[in-house]
């Protein structure tokens, strides 16, 4: 069975595909064939494209102005699947009779632009279209479609998750107590770093370790590319000359009078706003001047199928990368944009020699594929230092865990004989760390530092009786033992103040859970004959 899940509250299927292997077709196998049916209606390319654009805007609004990308953990295949989920919800909304009025869309748009202006002066629509939508190939109509879709989705969520909102105040009060009651505890942490000095790493031990863990040192498929870059800055002088200083200054003043400081995103003062407007005008002109030059170069390269020769003739430098893999770290290693990495591996997937123009932040690139390097396991001599470090860390971790388990047995016996946890731990040479009172809803336990995850500490604290010693909990660092000292009463005054909002949050979470369960069932049934169902089946069977 496939699991189609959604993000709490925002209700989109944004979890299940994160660990799914992308298909080689890129867009999930929909190209050229049937797109399937949902609730008996044929899926059309236009409807699917509309929902794709809706998702792009959804992501931008909900993820701090970032667009979905592979670096964000969102591949083209994932967006394709997300579009199907949105389309399913849209069809259900129609079946439920959900109708979104133009007045509701206008009100939502005004509120959206107001929020983008930090709740003060709304961001002007033309500015939002020009600075946010157009660079992504989106339009004002796409924004209208998204707002209409978002309202319909929220209405559908409320309708299909209604049963989950029926939470009695008494039940919510009990949940509040459970999440807010604080516990104080003492803990002893066993860190592998304290045992590194005792590790003996002989050549034979390192070789044996490497042979048993060769898969951990396997290098992924990599590529090496040559490229030519066209920086916008090369066209700055020409852009300034074409526009003219007087015209540029007048344009800046005109736009500033129209928008003011509040209407320019990122501006805090009038000088900031004018600088942003000034740079934006120049940037547009630079891009306009760069475009024909870059396209002329691309056409010549494709005609001659030789990037180096064309670059030499035109006096352009050719750069060559080190081999790199298709992962999020590659862009940082290369000090190149993520779009560069994606374009390189797209050439491999599509068996192309050249990439076409690739947009960066302040430049465009043309790539040529130099070589493909298949996955391989390097010999020990190439990774000996890394293997030695791994061996020492793993051995020290094992020593730390052995010490922790021996300590647990010892301290349990001493407590049974009448000693306190603190006294027994100190006698054994492990003075405990006092953890100040914390609750299940705590976001941090500062006294624990980085010795253990907060989830592990909470689990140990709230499942061990006060005054007793918990089990030894292994961690990546080594492990820890925790002993709860006391349970603090819930602050009655604070509870009275916070309970109404807590009840609302619980009902919303339960409503979302009910909607999730509905969506899982609907998606498994209604998307059965669509390309994304085949993708998920293949992805899961391959695991």
Structural account:
The protein is built from 18 helices and eleven strands. With 543 residues, the protein is of the alpha+beta class. It folds into three domains: 37-165 and 505-541, Triger factor/SurA peptide-binding fold; 182-216 and 382-487, no CATH class; 222-373, no CATH class. Strands 4, 5, 6, 7 and 8 form a five-stranded antiparallel beta sheet that branches. The chain has a four-stranded antiparallel beta sheet with strand order 9-3-11-10, sandwiched between helices. Helix 9 (245-259) packs across helix 10 (270-304). The chain is globular and about 90 Å long. The two termini are 14 Å apart.
Question: How is this structure best summarized?
Answer:
The protein is α+β, with helices and mostly antiparallel strands. The chain contains 18 helices and eleven strands.
Strand and helix layout:
Elements: E1 37-38, E2 41-42, H1 45-62, H2 76-95, H3 102-116, H4 125-133, H5 140-160, H6 169-180, E3 183-191, H7 203-212, E4 222-231, H8 236-243, H9 245-259, H10 270-304, H11 307-314, E5 319-320, E6 324-325, H12 328-334, H13 338-349, E7 354-359, E8 363-373, H14 380-416, H15 421-427, E9 433-438, H16 454-462, E10 473-474, E11 478-487, H17 492-526, H18 531-541
Antiparallel strand pairs: 1-2, 3-9, 3-11, 4-5, 4-6, 4-8, 7-8, 10-11
């Amino acid at each position: 069975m496939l699991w189609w899940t959604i993000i709490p509250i925002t209700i989109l299927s944004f979890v299940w595909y994160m660990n799914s292997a992308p298909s080689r077709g890129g867009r999930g196998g929909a190209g050229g064939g049937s797109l399937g049916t949902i609730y008996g209606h044929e899926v059309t390319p236009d409807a699917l494209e509309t929902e794709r654009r809706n998702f792009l805007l959804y992501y931008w609004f909900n993820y701090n102005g970032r667009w979905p990308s592979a670096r964000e953990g969102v591949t083209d295949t994932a967006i394709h699947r997300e579009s199907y989920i949105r389309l399913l919800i849209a069809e259900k909304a129609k079946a439920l009779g959900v109708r979104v009025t133009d007045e509701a869309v206008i009100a939502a748009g005004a509120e959206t632009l107001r929020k983008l202006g930090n709740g003060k002066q709304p961001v002007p629509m033309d500015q939002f279209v020009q600075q946010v939508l157009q660079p992504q190939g989106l339009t004002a109509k796409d924004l209208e479609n998204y707002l209409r879709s978002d309202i319909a989705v929220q209405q559908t969520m409320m309708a299909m998750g209604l049963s989950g909102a029926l939470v009695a105040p008494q039940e919510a009060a009990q949940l509040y107590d459970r999440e807010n009651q604080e516990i104080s505890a003492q803990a002893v942490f066993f860190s592998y770093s304290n045992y590194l000095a005792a590790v003996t790493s002989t050549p034979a031990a390192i070789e044996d370790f490497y042979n048993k863990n060769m898969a951990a040192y396997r290098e992924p498929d990599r590529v090496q590319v040559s490229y030519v870059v066209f920086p916008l800055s090369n066209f700055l002088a020409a852009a300034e000359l074409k526009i003219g200083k007087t015209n540029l200054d007048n344009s800046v003043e005109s736009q500033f009078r129209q928008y003011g400081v509040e209407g320019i995103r990122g501006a805090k003062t009038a000088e900031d706003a004018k600088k942003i407007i000034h740079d934006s005008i120049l940037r547009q002109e630079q891009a306009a001047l760069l475009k024909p030059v870059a396209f002329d170069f691309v056409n010549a390269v494709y005609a001659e199928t030789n990037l180096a020769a064309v670059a030499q003739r035109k006096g352009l430098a050719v750069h060559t990368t080190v081999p790199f893999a298709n992962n999020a770290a590659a862009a940082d290693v290369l000090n190149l944009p993520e779009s560069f990495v994606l374009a390189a591996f797209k050439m491999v997937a599509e068996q192309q020699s050249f990439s076409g123009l690739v947009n960066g932040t302040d430049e465009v690139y043309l790539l040529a594929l130099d070589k493909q390097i298949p996955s391989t396991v390097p010999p020990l001599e190439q990774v000996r230092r890394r293997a030695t470090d791994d061996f020492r860390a793993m051995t020290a971790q094992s020593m730390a865990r052995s010490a922790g388990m021996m300590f647990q047995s010892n301290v349990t016996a001493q407590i049974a004989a009448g000693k306190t946890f603190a006294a027994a731990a100190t006698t054994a040479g492990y003075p405990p760390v006092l953890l100040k009172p914390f609750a299940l809803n705590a976001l941090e336990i500062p006294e624990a530092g980085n010795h253990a995850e907060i989830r592990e500490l909470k689990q140990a604290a709230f499942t061990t009786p006060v005054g007793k010693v918990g089990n030894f909990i292994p961690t990546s660092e080594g492990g820890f033992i925790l002993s709860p000292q006391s349970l603090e009463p819930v602050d009655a005054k604070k509870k009275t103040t916070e309970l109404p909002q807590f009840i609302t949050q619980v009902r919303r979470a339960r409503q979302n859970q009910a909607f999730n369960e509905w969506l899982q069932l609907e998606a498994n049934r209604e998307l059965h004959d669509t390309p994304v169902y085949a993708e998920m089946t293949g992805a899961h069977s391959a695991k």
